[in-house]
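I'm stuck. Please check this protein.
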Amino acid sequence: MDKKSQHYSTHFPDVRVKVYSVPESLRRHLYLFKTVTGVFSFKKLDLGTKVFIKHMSIPEKENILLDLGCGYGAIGIVLARSSLQSTVYLTDINNRALWCARENVKYNLSESSGKVIVLQGNYFEPFKNKSIKFDGIYMNPPLRKGRREFLTLCEEIPLHLNSKGLFQFVIKKKMGAEYVHNYLNKHLSELFEKIEVTFKRSGYWVFYLTTF
């Protein structure tokens, strides 16, 4: 694969390694994320993720949560710090992203920040043959790979959620947020009890879905 055409969801990115430090204030706390080339938004935390983190709903009681396609771990780490009693899983296919996520968990979270588990695999592959269901799944989906893959994933999401479970994600308007919203309401309303856009800002839409 041509290095210039490689996507950050490549298993082993074949680009020269360069390490960065990304400071960011999120939900009234300062974080410092270690990142490397070959990982999504490695020079700074992307605006979509920042908007999403600020406006995502985080349960107060004990839950099992998933940062799906975690990158270097910003969403999952904020979840773990904000819901200390919960177990939070972070998954990604990108080997470099997972190295960063593990480093960032160690640096940004204390032992009192709940149980954080980082696993490698594409989407739900790490949970194959495991009886784990989630109370909340959070995602900044890689729509540059195409909307069809993400919409197919949405059909699978309820299989991995408990009753009244949350699926929250962010999509840029230019990347088809309105199309996704219309598609979900037209084709997947039997799978989700609630399909809402809870926030719009700077061209980003934050989605909030719940299962029956």
In short: The domain at 19-210 is CATH 3.40.50.150 (Rossmann fold). Residues 1-6 have pLDDT under 50 and may be disordered. Residues 119 and 154 are 20 Å apart (CA to CA). DSSP finds five helices and nine strands in the chain.
